Amino acid sequence: MRLLHTMLRVGDLQKSIDFYTQLMGMQLLRVTRRPEQNYDLAFVGYGTNPEHAELELTYNYGVSSYEIGTAYGHIALGVVDVHACCERIRAGGGVITREPGPVKGGSTVIAFAQDPDGYKIELIQRDQAFFA
To answer: Is the pTM of this model over 0.70?
Structure first.
């Protein structure tokens, strides 16, 4: 088995596409429009399946916001430089909810950002070799 994608319901599809592509460095992989069923999908990620898991951004026509709920935690992304990533997000109008620094009780450098719909994204610093 392999993880294929995670679906997030979003209130503004283009705003979410812009956030994940422009601020998080993902690529828009494909868009599916289903006007007869009142929804559109956009898949974003760092590569195509089966090598990389993707995010499925689902926009249901007429719904501009959702309650995230207490069961949702976060999406985790590996980045080469957490500080630079946070600055890019901040410069693009994004929100950093935890500044870069070591995880409590450890040395791994992390930070947290928030997407336009309020979903939390953990940024975990990794060596360049991790991405090879």
So the answer is: yes
